[in-house]
Amino acid sequence: MSRPWVIVLGASSGFGAAAAIRFAQEGYGVVGVHLDRRSTIHNAESVQSSVEAAGAPCMMFNINAADSELREECIVTIKGQLEERGEHVKVLLHSLAFGSLLPMVATEGRSLSSKQMTMTIEVMANSLVWWSRSVVESGLMVEGGRIFAMTSSGSQRTIPNYGAVGAAKAALESHIRYLAAELAPNKITANSILAGITVTPALLKIPGSDVLIEAAKRRNPHGRLTTPEDVADCLIELSKAGTAWLTGNTLRVDGGEDICG
Predict the structure, then answer these.
(1) How would residue 199 be classed by pLDDT, with cut points 50, 70 and 90?
(2) Angle at the Cα of 58 (from 53 to 60), degrees rounded to 5?
(3) Contacts of 225 (CB under 8 A, 6+ apart)
């Protein structure tokens, strides 16, 4: 049997890193796309080491996932490697966290610029569409494929200084619904994943993240926060054949945190 592959956008930390490792443990080959400078490249190297320790092949691309030329170069490289093996991409996970955390209107200090708003939405939302289109149109993803995008409660609720990211997450969920409808004839599903509050590098950059963490700890009926590994385990199950009729949703993976809010 040919090996399934997963492409993880945002593979060097948080949900993306945990998912890359977990899929490798399930026998998937891993393509990791990340953007790291010298100070953080060790995170990507650690993920690659863990993937390879699980016995899985791994390709890592340190690029801006929102750059169209670099994306297409990446797709060509992946396609060449997988065609030699007679294998396909089974899962695409969008877990990019790169956006501006500034108020829309500031009484003092800086406020969000047009360029920052556009960049945030392009990276954290629109890039999902471009990558999905590339993997499908290139023939990398075929019948039975799964597309997942990590969203957040900021798509529906206000969080201080989260306006640009919240707009991006709302757009991301809309993109997922349209991808689900358009790719249904291809028998490819698309779903958003809404995790509970999880301590990741992205969360810790949000002003007031300590307040969000403490509130989630009190609210969650399991008495703890969600972890990236919790989400990765669910992604494995959601990628199986029995979920072929599950598409176009925003799925909560939070241990009951939201229902106790």
Answers:
(1) very high
(2) 125
(3) 196, 197, 198, 199, 213, 216, 217
Pair of tokens at residue 91: 């899962």
Cα–chain center distance at 207: 22
Output the CA torsion sign for 100, 106, 110, 113.
Answer: positive
Number of domains in the chain: 1
Q: What's the domain range around 229?
A: 5-251
| Angle CA 179–226–148, to nearest 5 | 15
What's this model's pTM, rounded to 2 decimal places? 0.96
Residue 206's pLDDT band, with cuts at 50, 70 and 90, is confident
Torsion angles phi and psi, residue 23, rounded to 5: -65, -35
The answer to whether residue 217 is domain-embedded is yes
**pLDDT of 261 over the 90 cut:** no
Sequence-distant (6+) residues with CB within 8 A of 259 are none
Domain presence at residue 256: no
Model confidence over 29-69: pLDDT tens digits? Answer: 999 999 999 999 999 999 999 999 999 999 999 999 999 99
Instruction: Give a yes or no: residue 42 inside a domain.
Output: yes
Closest CA to 10 of 135, 97, 136: 97
Distance between CA atoms of residues 57 and 210, nearest Å: 38
Is 73's pLDDT higher than 70? yes
26-50 as b/e, with b when 16 or more CB fall inside 10 Å? eebbbbbbbbbeeeeeebbeebbeb
- What are the tokens at 174? 């809309």
CATH code, domain carrying 79: 3.40.50.720
